Write the structure tokens for this entry.
Amino acid sequence: MFLTPLCIYLYSLIFRFYHFIIFIEIIFTKIQIILTHRKWEQRKLGEVATLSSSKRIHLSDYVRSGVPFYRGSEIGTGGITSDQELFISEEKYREIIENYDIPCEGDLLVTAVGTLGNIWKVDDRRFYYKDGNLIRISNMKFDSDYLLSYFNGGTGKKRLLNSAAGSNQKVLTMEKMREIALLSPIDEEQQKIGALNIELK
């Protein structure tokens, strides 16, 4: 069945109207958040999440293929890059998960050296990561998408980068990051912000 030009035109109008309604809803939500976030209390990151590093992996543990091993360079602004260079063996990975805590889906990994402050929300893939290069944020009392959004722009990103230590070579440390102040909206507002990926300024 072929659509007449009138039908195509009507479908186009309905499609545009639908997206206009979504756009208005997003703008309205953003305005609500901007008007209310001044009333939010502040909490320290160390009060609402656990910051940790990994078990040290030695050069002799690297293999040509196996379980991906991430450093700071594998995490970009859009997540994991495609340039995977390092791996550890299946045996080493099993040893780690049997004896140590490993990142879970929903945890955040933050680059602590090189390009500071890139953040990846852990998915269901198997991997391990380099101590000192990445800092893990877990056991969050805040919505993880809210924290991801908060540290990716505006005040949150500035506070994260300003916490870096060192003169010549800046690095992020768990000690300094635990002191970072966070805006603390209620759970429902956190979820809205995380979903809209707002940059609070």
Notes: The two ends are 52 Å apart (CA to CA). DSSP finds seven helices and twelve strands in the chain.
